[in-house]
Every structure is written in C-alpha cells, then in structure tokens.
Amino acid sequence: MTTHSQDVRPIPYGGGEWGADATRWRLGAERFRMITGQWHDDLDAALVTQHGAVGRSELGPGSIAMCLIRNVCEELSVLYVDPPTVTTTTDSDVSDLVGPYGYLEDAQTWNQGTYLQQVTLAEREGLKFLMWQDGQLVTETVEPHKVVCRPLPMRPTKLGMVRRCKWLWSHETTYQHQGDGVWVWEVWDIRTEPRYAIHVHEPTAMENLGTDITGQLVGFDAPEGYPWVWTQGDKAGEPFLPWTLYHAELATTLWDPTRWAELVDGTKDTGVLLTQFLHLMLRAAHTAKWSIGVRQVGSKASDGARRTEGGMTVLHEFLDIDDTGGSPGRLGEWKPAASPSEYMTAIQKFITLIASVAGIDASHIVRESADAWSGAALTVDREGKREAQKVYGARFRAADEEMVAKCAALVNINTDSALPESGYRVSYKALPLSPEEEEIRRVHAKEMVADGRWSEIDAHKYMRPGMTREEAILDMRRIVADAALVAAPAKTEEDDNV
User: Fold this and answer.
1) Which of 9, 170, 462, 484 has the smallest C-beta neighbourhood within 10 Å, fewest atoms?
2) By three-state DSSP, how is residue 187 classified?
3) pLDDT above 70 for 312
4) Would you state the pLDDT for residue 220?
5) b/e map of 437-475 (b: 16 or more CB within 10 Å)?
6) Is the dihedral of CA 448, 449, 455, 461 positive or negative?
7) pTM
8) Is residue 3 a contact partner of residue 168, using CB atoms and an 8 Å limit?
9) Is 58 within 8 Å of 284 (Cβ atoms)?
10) Residue 287 to residue 367: CA distance in whole angstroms
11) Are 204 and 154 in contact (CB under 8 A)?
12) Where are the domains of the chain?
C-alpha cells in the first residue's frame, strides 16, 4: 500500500480516549513539524500572539534558523551512531538474523535508529513497525501522531491494539468511493480474539470502524487469519503485534505527550527572538544621522532628505553639505538603539536555560569562543553525549530486544528458519574517546593506580567507556595471552623432530 504524500490525515475526535488521542496527535504533529523544519506557521502564530497582527507585519519574515527541540534531539540521539551488538543467551546460531548481511542489516534496522531516537525524544514515544514483504524483512519507523493505540488489559504500558491511518489510492482498492482515494484504518488487535483488518475511515463513527475492505485490495493479499504468532517456547501459538513501542521516559502508560512542553515553547520563543534580532539588525543596529537647516550639495531643498521626521532630515550618510539660508544649520547622529552582540548573548543564555529541561548540563554545552557571534546553535560535548547514551540506552534496550525477538519470529513464520525468539541482548557502543580525552584519562588513571585507589581493572575499564567490569577482565586476559604468544620463541623443524 502507498501512503498519501500529504500528511492531511483525519484527526481523532470526541470525548474520553478519543479526545485524548486528538490532543496527542496535535501535540505530536507540532513537534514533528519542528524536527522536520516545517514549523513556519507555528512561529507565525507565536509572533502574532506576542506582537499582535500589526506588530507581526512589521517584523518581516519569521526565522526558523534555530530550532531548539530539533537541535536537542539531534545532539542527544547517539545510541545508534554505530550499530549495536546483538547476542543471544541461547546456543543457537543467529548470524542469519543479526550478523553481516543478515535480515536486520538488510532491513536497514539500525540505520533507522538515529531517526527513531529523534522522533522518540521529540514526541516522547516512537514506534517500529515490522513486516514481511517480497520475501524480505522490512522495518519502518512510525511517528506516534499517526496511530491510535490501546493497551493490553491490566498491562497499561504494553500495546494491545494499533490502528494506523493510511491513504489508499483508487487503483489500490476495488472499494467504491469518490475522489482519488480513501482514508482507511489498518488494524492489529490482540486484546481478545486476534484480528487484522482494513476498514474505511468513517468521520461520523470514530469509535466504530467503518466498512471492512480487507478483501477489496489490489496488489496486496491480506493474510489469512492472524499470522503474527510466536512459534517457539512457552509463548508458542500466542499472538503478538508486529509493532514495538519506544519510550523516552520510564512509562506507566502508553503515552506521555506533554513532557518537554517547556522545550516546545522555548523553541517558539527562540524563533521569536531570532526574528526580532533580524529586525533589530535592519532597523536599530546602525547610527542614524540627521540635519536641520542644511542640505546636500546638488539637491533641491525639497528632496534632500532620505526621510523627514518632525522637520528633521535623517540621512544614512553625509556628503558635502550646503547651508539652506535659514537658521544656523545643525548636524548630528543617533547612536544604535540596541547592541546586536548583547542581544545574541541573551539569546544564547536563554537557549542554555531551556536546554536544561532536556537534562543537558550547562557544563556540557560547547561554545567555540566567548564571542556571541560564534553561533547560537546548541552543541553538546562528547562526555555529555556519553551520559545521554547511558540514560537512553537503559530506556531503549528492552524495546530493541523485543523488536529483535519479533523480527526472529517473522523470519521463522515466513521461512524454514528456527531462530530463537527470546534471549536476545542488545549492547550499544559508546562514543570513542577523542585524542585529547584519551590523554587526560590516561594521566588520571595512572595517578589513581599509583595512589592505590584503583586496580588495573578499574583503569582499563575507565579508558574504555561503556565496557563492563567483566568485559574489562576478559579483555585484559586476552592482552596478556596475546603478549605471551608473541614473546614465545617460534618453533622450528628441529623442535618438531625432537
């Protein structure tokens, strides 16, 4: 099926859960526009709110050059800079799934990770959709403001139903309708009797699904029954959803759409401030020269002004001046009404303040220099990014491990494979140390070992961010074994003959 090219899908409405879905979609769509550079209208609305319609028209074009929430999400989305390592607690060979050229790699699963994390941080949740198409595993990142979900009974954080709003073009269905296509709900539901279906979206019956057109699709064979079931272990025969839900925070419900609201408002405020800054540069960052009783040589008394304010001629520059013959002439200038550097410094301080909402310590914000013109964009240093890896690694790991297990089940369902469907462990690779960081850490580690406050194992682990103590011990043993192997004298033919 082809998704409609324009994101004009219907928004849920009504009371109760549907009212909450409508609010969540609006909030999520606003954040999505921000991280994808489509928030001009949102900024215009903020400018009108703060300046009124007339004041807004005088400011000129709004500036979205600095999008704070997008900047924060990009700086903190570092879990998947390198593909994570996937292992299993079983003895099975899982290289077909997680190894080079395996199903996960062919599906570009980890290459989508950075975008998935950015969406999850911005909208506070993100989804990964898994499907089998044309003999291959396919994974897709889906934004939360495009689905309606319900939890499993008595399990408020686990998905039990997913409805995805999609557009079907006329050539993709035999269902009789008007126009170029029709909006539909694609539904997966395992809360009671497992079911999969495609229903027409009915604006007058949001809570109830419209006509079932699952059997009226062209070029798409709907599965018979509900094929998404576990094939192994204690869960064999139980249904699962081909979806995985990711949380930016430890959750007690499916959704947390209002967290980081301060960052959203701060993004709009930053856009307002930058728009005002451009207006300041045009209107108030230069000296304004004026004259009374004089005019430029060669000009007429009536046209010697660039503009006249209260009988005072305001000039952008001075040429030769001639007395007009009236009262004694006077010349002067007004100093700039504002300092661009001071204004930019204030914007930078505001950005740092708002960034703290995302848990970014001011000490980890990088400025290339103290000069206000060094750039307003927020940049987090490598240590700050490593801290973000630790925080979000703990929150994403369970979802990634669930996703890998479901991918294994999909492969088993559609091929003759027998991959394990549980026991997967995902490990994220820490950002490597820069040469400067490595030297600082090396000196510190030597001092700590020399003072007897650290063991060699502690120092080894410290020099390799992300390594556990057990991994450090194994790595040190490998180094010792390799050194002994190299130091051992090479065998000769005479040795073999003895």
Assistant:
1) 484
2) strand
3) no
4) 64
5) beeebeeebeeeeeeeebeeeebbbbbbbbeeeeebeee
6) positive
7) 0.80
8) no
9) no
10) 30
11) no
12) 16-260+386-426, 287-335, 433-488
